[in-house]
Amino acid sequence: ITENNDCYFLEQAVYGIYTDAACTTLFTTISPNETLSLDSNTYYLKEIEAGNGYEINEEILSFTVENNTDNKVKVHDKPFYHNSPLILKKRDSQTYNGICDTQFKIQFYGFDSYSLEECEQMEPLKTWVFKTDSNGCLYFDEDHFVSGDEIYKDDENNPILPLGTLILEEKKPAQGYLKQERKVLKKKNNTKCFSCCNFYPD
């Protein structure tokens, strides 16, 4: 999910190298793909600052340096994403009841932007069409999916939405309603929560 997505930057991570297993005595720090020359000893590696868009890895790894040997320590950071988030709600402007079966085109961009114009000058990473349910809600999941590119999924095949920017545009109104002619930009760079948009017919 991080491929071609500027919201994720693993190279910003910082790892501490310690001389004790409890990681209380910091010896030095290192970044991804950086090399160090260390004296023969046993060391402990712990992430102290995660890369942009990634969760911090609390695991402590030990490694031993011997004379005239090279050591490579592999670490893994989990990218932030949202599990099947509620993208929007479509409501009747008079009754405020949810409107079912409204279809929206959703374009996903792998960068952080406040500008519709900036996004529209770039090719989206993904384009989908989703529809609202009987409550007027549109979730990013297979039950609400209509067509488009493959949905992002985690290792357990659950739909997920990475960090990035969305452009939401109504494509097909529900029966009895007029199509709403506007586009909405929705940033999704918050790693803690994801708020939805409310759409009301004009």
Estimated radius of gyration = 23 Å
The SSE string, one letter per element, is: EEEEEEEHEEEEEEE
Indicate the low-confidence ranges by residue numbers: none
Percent of residues in beta strands:
35-45%
DSSP summary, beta strand count: 14
Shape category: elongated
Number of helices: 1
Mean pLDDT: 89
User: What characterizes the major β-sheet?
Assistant: 5 strands, antiparallel
Percent helix, as a range, is under 10%
Order of adjacent strands in the largest pleated sheet = 10-8-7-12-13
- Helix/strand structural class: mainly beta
Termini, distance in Å?
Answer: 36 Å
Top keywords for this entry?
mainly beta; 4-stranded antiparallel β-sheet; 14 strands; 5-stranded antiparallel β-sheet; 202 residues; 2% helix
Question: How would you briefly describe this protein structure?
Answer:
With 202 residues, the protein is mainly beta. It is 2% helix and 37% strand. The protein has one helix spanning 116-120, and strands at residues 14-18, 26-30, 41-49, 60-65, 81-83, 86-90, 103-109, 126-131, 137-139, 145-148, 160-162, 164-172, 183-188, 197-199.
